[in-house]
């Protein structure tokens, strides 16, 4: 039986995703979140919010002093706006982040018994939480998130040939990537892509001739 072009394409992309996943697993056997959240769901919630337009390294740096004062959502719901701003100032967008963390904390305490929600609908209803954070939390905490389509993942997956290079639409990225990566593998693959991007495929100055994915990468194959 002849497969339709659409079906063939999906099969090809699934095979590419599996090969990328297998190679990255060999290069980075440990797929840890770059945010050092110490296995604590509340920490990951706050750190994911702080990481918007900020490096993971900086977020890790502020976390010790920060969680000494807001170890739980209850503490965060009660801390003053000014004090929280002070604690997270170096992460940028500190007013907005402080406000949304305090408001989210209050909702988590009042509506969810102090637990970070384990479903997309309740997560997306929290102030400051978009699909990227929701997918990160669902994937890392509960093993059921979608692909975390941030700028780095979108750049790399475009170069690899999963969709047109330069595409910057996270919703479209998820629509293409989620069906070809099994749910239980998404969080680890996303973490490995972060490591891989830093080491081999940064936004500028990537050297494809030194890349371990060059032979299967659409952009890499075009390099003479
Ligand atoms: S071959 Fe080049 S473009 Fe492709 S993933 Fe490697 S570094 Fe990035």
What can you tell me about this protein's structure?
There is one protein chain. By secondary structure, this protein is mainly alpha-helical. The chain has two domains: 102 residues, Helix-hairpin-Helix base-excision DNA repair enzymes (C-terminal) (Endonuclease Iii, domain 2), CATH 1.10.1670; 102 residues, Endonuclease III, domain 1. The chain contains twelve helices and no strands. The radius of gyration is 19 Å and the shape is elongated. The model has no long low-confidence stretch (mean pLDDT 95). The protein binds iron/sulfur cluster. Iron/sulfur cluster binds next to helix 9 and helix 12.
Number of domains: 2
Give the terminus-to-terminus CA distance: 38 Å
Can you tell me the CATH class of the largest domain? Mainly Alpha
Low-pLDDT ranges: none
Q: How would you classify the helix and strand content by structural class?
A: mainly alpha
Overall geometry: elongated
Strand tally, please? 0
- Using the coordinates shown, work out and report the CATH topology of the largest domain: Endonuclease Iii, domain 2
How many DSSP helices? 12
CATH architecture of the largest domain: Orthogonal Bundle
Bound molecules: iron/sulfur cluster
Strand content: under 5%
Provide the gyration radius in Å: 19 Å
Helix content estimate:
55-70%
Chart the SSEs and their pairings.
Layout lengths: L4 H23 L13 H10 L5 H14 L3 H6 L2 H8 L5 H19 L7 H5 L6 H12 L8 H10 L9 H8 L5 H17 L18 H4 L3
Helix pairs in contact: 2-8, 5-6, 8-11
This protein binds iron/sulfur cluster.
């Amino acid at each position: 039986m002849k497969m339709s072009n659409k079906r063939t394409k999906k099969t090809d992309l699934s095979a590419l995703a599996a090969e990328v996943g297998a190679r990255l697993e060999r290069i980075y056997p440990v797929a840890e979140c770059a945010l050092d959240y110490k296995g604590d769901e509340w920490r990951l919630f706050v750190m994911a919010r702080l990481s918007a337009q900020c490096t993971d390294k900086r977020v890790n740096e502020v976390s010790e002093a920060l969680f000494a004062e807001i170890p739980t959502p209850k503490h965060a719901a009660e801390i003053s706006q000014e004090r929280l701003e002070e604690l997270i100032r170096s992460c940028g967008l500190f007013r907005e982040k402080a406000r949304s963390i305090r408001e989210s904390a209050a909702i988590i305490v009042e509506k969810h018994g102090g637990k970070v929600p384990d479903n997309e609908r309740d997560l997306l209803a929290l102030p400051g939480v978009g699909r990227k954070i929701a997918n990160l939390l669902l994937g890392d905490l509960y093993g059921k998130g979608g692909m975390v389509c941030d700028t780095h993942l979108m750049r790399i997956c475009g170069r690899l040939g999963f969709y047109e290079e330069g595409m910057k639409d996270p919703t479209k990225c998820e629509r293409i990537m989620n069906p070809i990566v099994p749910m239980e593998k998404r969080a680890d693959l996303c973490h490995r892509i972060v490591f891989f991007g830093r080491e081999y495929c940064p936004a500028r100055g990537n050297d494809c001739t030194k890349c371990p994915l060059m032979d299967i990468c659409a952009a890499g194959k075009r390099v003479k």
